[in-house]
Amino acid sequence: MPSRSPQPETPKGLIVGIALGAIIVLIAIIIFFIYYRRKKRKEALSSKGISSKPNQLPVLGPVSHETPSTSGSLGSEKPSPGILRLSQGVFSYEELAMATNGFSNTNLVGEGGFGYVHKGVFRDGKVVAIKQLKAESRQGEREFQAEIEIVSRIHHRHLVSLVGYCVTGAQRMLVYEFIPNNTLEFHLHGKERPTMNWSTRMKIAVGSAKGLAYLHEDCQPKIIHRDVKAANILLDDSFEAKVADFGLAKHSLDTDTHVSTRVMGTFGYMAPEYASSGKLTEKSDVFSFGVVLLELITGRRPINRTQSFLDDSIVDWARPLLKQALKEGTYDALVDPKLQGDYDSSEMTRMISCAAACICPSAGLRPQMSQVIP
Question: Where are the coiled-coil regions (predicted)?
């Protein structure tokens, strides 16, 4: 029989190379698995308003007067899956005209550069707020599209809910749930308004913070409101806060560093880096929220036009007083004199600490919204 030729031996170097390659692949898989587990854990903690690192930042809560039904964590208020289907929320012009008595002045509850807001009552008794955008406004068209896109996919007890919309010819209208108790600006700064007590101010601060934290950290992609101010915080009959007006809101991915050539917002509330360069992140909203906290603490408007120094910013005025108050533990120079000293000192300390952190000139040093709530 013919003899078999000897089989060539596998080079030892090739065997070693294959073994090393297998080890490297295994190590890479292990590293990826560890990274993935940590990432998911961090996301889970974030959704509950908990930092995976020790939190050295001041928090507004706990709030002693808040009932269990209103003191839940962010994790208890998840977005509805997918985008809200508005097939049942498309209204005709005639329906909305009938609900508002022909958009009469007696039903007019608000007015701004965007247009008008009327109170409406449908045949079934449901009460709504109808935002009618100016037909000639190109910006109004953009705001309409933004609000439809953004508000239809969010659901949170401290954000105003969209009921539906109307598109008829040049008419653009948004239909919201009706919030009956006006705005924070109205109650804080309106003429001859009774003084808002401290517990109510604290309740509004916590509720607003929870709504903004949901936008920044529970929505994917996250949402930057871009016009956080006292006039955009609506109050219900129990003075629960609901953040409203998403016409200027923008989506943002974690990797985004958005720079806008069209700086939008309200003077006195805009973060310095956004006002000067158009650089927009969620920390811009944090700064604006800090200004709202200063309004709650001091009772002052963001821009003081009544004193000898016109356009005196509440931020510039308050910064040295915040530092002094936290250092010495005395608040008389800072706190709204209408409160007449009637406030919880530990809660005041927390709110002052939060305000100071939120209005930090450096955006990177400001806290996340979930870090300033319980």
Answer: none
Nearest alpha carbon to residue 144 among 161, 166, 129: 166
**Active-site residue (options: 124, 218, 227, 285):** 227
Token couple for 5:
């030729």
Question: Phi and psi at residue 10, in whole multiples of 5°?
Answer: -70, 130
**Beta-strand pair 233-235/171-177:** unpaired
Residue 256 backbone dihedrals phi, psi, to 5 degrees: -75, 140
Residue range 93-113: mean pLDDT, rounded:
93
Q: 131 labelled as ligand-binding?
A: yes
Distance CA 26, CA 271 (A): 47
Q: What is the mean pLDDT of residues 169-197?
A: 94
Task: Give the least confident one: 21-25, 86-90, 123-127, 338-342.
Answer: 86-90
- Please indicate whether residue 342 is annotated as part of the active site: no
Residues 6+ apart with CB under 8 A from 95: 122, 166
Can you give the pLDDT at residue 12?
62
Q: The tokens 């003899």 sit on which residue?
A: 3
Degrees, nearest 5: CA angle 235-46-64: 45
The H or E element spanning position 190 is none
- Cα(9)–Cα(249) distance, rounded to whole angstroms? 68
What one-letter code names the amino acid at 73? S
Computed over its alpha carbons, how large is the radius of gyration of the chain?
26
Reported confidence tier of residue 138, pLDDT bands at 50, 70, 90: low
d(CA 125, CA 90): 18
Domains and CATH numbers, the chain: 56-79+180-371 (1.10.510.10), 93-177 (3.30.200.20)
User: Which of 18-22, 88-92, 257-261 has the weakest average pLDDT?
Assistant: 257-261
Helix, strand and coil percent figures for the chain, each rounded to 5: 40, 15, 45
Question: Taking the mean position of all CA atoms in its chain, how far away is CA 263?
Answer: 18
The percent of residues in the chain predicted with pLDDT above 90, rounded, is 56
Which among 205, 235, 239, 223 has a CA at the least distance from the CA of 355?
205
